[in-house]
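Fold this complex.
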Amino acid sequence: MKAVIKGAGYILVHVPDMVLRNGTTQTTERIVNPDSEYLKELPKHLRSFEEVCSYWPNQVYIGNKTPDDLAALEADKVRGWADLKCDVTDRYGKFGQIMPQQQFLLLMQACDVFDLLKLDAGFVDKYKAEFAENPLITEDITARIPETQTEIAEIERLVKEEHSEGLYMNDVLVGCIKRAHDIDVNLSAHVMHENIVSKASSVLSILAAVKSTGIDKNEVEYIIDCCEEACGDMNQRGGGNFAKAAAEIAGLDNASGSDTRGFCAGPAHAIVEAAALVASGTYKTVMVTAGGCTAKLGMNAKNHVEKDLPALEDCLGGFAVVLTADNGIDPVINLNMVGRHTVGTGAAPQNVIGSLVAAPLEKNGLKITDIDKYSPEMQNPDITKPAGAGDVPLANYKMIAALAVKNGELQRADLATFPAKHGLVGWAPTQGHIPSGVPYIGFAKDDILAGKIKNAMIIGKGSLFLGRMTNLFDGVSFVIEANDGNNQAEGGVSEAEVKGLIAKAMKDFAAALMEQAE
Amino acid sequence: MSILAGKKVVIIGDRDGIPGLAIEACAKTAGAEVVFSSTECFV
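Structure:
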């Protein structure tokens, strides 16, 4: 049995107030330099929801525009795509949507099952109707919003006296998240805020994937969460299962699940695991999901403010990918072509790309140029270039091309054209795991089905050294390729066909008996 | 004579560029004393 990509959902959540109050660049600055010019300037650089919806990379992320559309744009050398208004400004796309902050606060409350998230009654009255009208929000989810909300005076008291984390709308306090334990730092209001945000954006991603693929929610038998947060208490800090927690709210009643972690490489690891679970026949339909990360909001905003750019890291990202048993149509994940950064691989860039790209291809008798499109780290260069981190996808393509030249698979003269031919421009927000290879999966499925490309390699990389447990780097890659249509079920026949064959044999047998009797 | 010989060196590598460990190996070969080395992730 093979696993196929049924489809994907991609969502963004515009959360300008969380940029100011929850991004670690800002929270750190507030501690070490509370009167800094940066903190005073930053609010002036926040974008409106309309500006976020008209930003080209965001329209690519939700599927209203394609990576090719983005590549064809003439970006400003300094300001990139920041000043270009996309001709499509719809907040809903074929892969998902861009959710405004006021709706997300209500979704967060719907995802809170321990009565920790309090919202101002007036705020809820104002926005509950528009929340209920969101096409991804089900009646079940709307029904989770409590009828009785909290007076603002009580919310102010909870923030001032009870260590609650404030929730803001246009810099006005409209709610809070209470700590879930008096002493346990793992259940502090700050951690609960981070985790409820991750869970809620994962729920939205799941709902987007269900809608874009058209699957029945009950088909999903297993779900893997691959974000970079940890939930647990003082006795098991990363105890986990964001996956089941989100599946519960999203209504995947038939799903079991678990979490997979690997920093930014988490999604690629999770998809390989999901494909293996489907290919082995353990589960027929598996979903991989991840919500967004509050800590990384405005991560590079100091540089953006300094260069008079908008604070572009103003959205949480989320995605979900649906994998099912081979249907003979959708693109296949080739589990014989998995790239592995092993413990012994080392950190040298040549070794990293060698293990993730060249090695799995070589094992299958393929050259680097045999892959039509590579999707490594797909960070939006508008965000990274002003911060001095360069164009990350382009850096990856240059390294892949250099290895191809070294291996004698590409002419040196073709180095310059390799990124455009085999690569993509980055469009994903710098939300760690979110840009790590996976933003292209939705497009890759469409491009393969349309015959534009025959295959694509997804590459995830992870900075394990950030956890201070090892100096090791990490990475994993896999190849999605066109379905040859010949392998709907191992052995050549499906369950339905077997039933048909048995029925026919019994009918023939009965006919033979009748004949004998006559 | 290497410009790094006998010098104390602080290394900050980039996850998507040259990692600290790789720079460290080069700097040591050039005779530097590495007093701090790490790799950071900017994305």
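The radius of gyration of chain B is 11 Å.
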